[in-house]
Amino acid sequence: MSIHIGVGGWTFEPWRGTFYPAGLARKRELEYASQHLTSIEINGTYYGTQKPESFARWYEETPDGFVFSLKGSRFTTNRRALAEAGPSVERFVSSGLLLLKEKLGPINWQMLPTKRFDPEDFEAFLKLLPPEADGQKLRHVVEVRHPSFACPEFIGLLRSYGVGVVFADHDSYPCLYDPTAPFVYARLQRASEQEASGYSADALGAWAKRAQSWAKGKSPRDLPLVAPAEPKPPASRDVFIYMINGFKPKAPAAAMALMAQLS
After folding, report:
1. Rounded Cα–Cα distance for residues 173 and 244 (Å)
2. Which terminus of the chain is less hemmed in, N or C, by CB atoms within 10 Å?
3. What's the predicted TM-score (pTM) here?
4. pLDDT tens-digit profile of 157-177?
5. In this predicted model, what pLDDT tens digit does every residue of 59-73 receive, in sequence order?
6. In order of start, what are the domains of the chain with their CATH numbers?
7. Is there a contact between 239 and 2 (Cβ–Cβ < 8 Å)?
C-alpha cells in the first residue's frame, strides 16, 4: 500500500521563511518541497496549458517515489454539456503531462459548484476519460460540488468506470467518502491558524487511521457512505491526501505532521 501526503502547489509567499528556509532560491522551492512531502497537486494546469518542458523539469527536480497529481483544465469541466468535452480532454492529455512518467498521479477533474448531476451527460464525460495514453496508464478522479451528486446512482456510475471521487473536507460541498476506484483522493480544507500544525494531534491521528484503512482496501467505520459498500473491495489502495485550504500558511506543517503520524 502507498499513502501520498502533500499540498496544493509549491509557490506561496507565506511559506517563504516558514516552510522554506530564508534565502532559498525560488527556483529550488519544488526541489525542497519534494524532499519533505511525498506528493503535490498542481493547480496551474487548471488555469492554462503548461509547456512540455515544465513537466520534464518537474520530473527531474523531484526524487524517486514522488508523485504529482494534476488539476484537469477548467476549459474541459466548466461547460454546460460535459459530453462535448472530448477535444478538450485530448488536448490536455497530449499537453506534455506524460513526461512526468511514473511520477504522474491522478488527474482531478474539478466541477463548478453550480454543476448538477445529470446521469446521462456525466456518463458521457466518463467515457471520454482515457484509461491510458501512449502505453501509460492514467488515473482519473472527479471533484463535484453540488449536493445532487450525493446519491448512490453517482457512486455506482463512477465505480463502473473505475473513476475516483474527491473527498472534500468542506462545509459547503458534499462529503463523499465512498471509494469508487483503486485509489482514494482526499482534499482536507480545515487547517486552523490557532493550531501549530494546522490540525490538532487528535484530528491528525484520526486522518492517519482513515488513510491506513483506505490503503488496506477498507472504508473507515467513522465515515458515512452514500451507497452500499463495494461487493469486492481491493486488497489495497493508493491513497492521496492533500492539505489544501483553510489557513493555507499551515498546509505544509499539517502535511508533515500527518506524515509523522503515519510513520
Report:
1. 14
2. C
3. 0.96
4. 999 999 999 999 888 899 999
5. 999 999 999 999 999
6. 2-262 (3.20.20.410)
7. yes
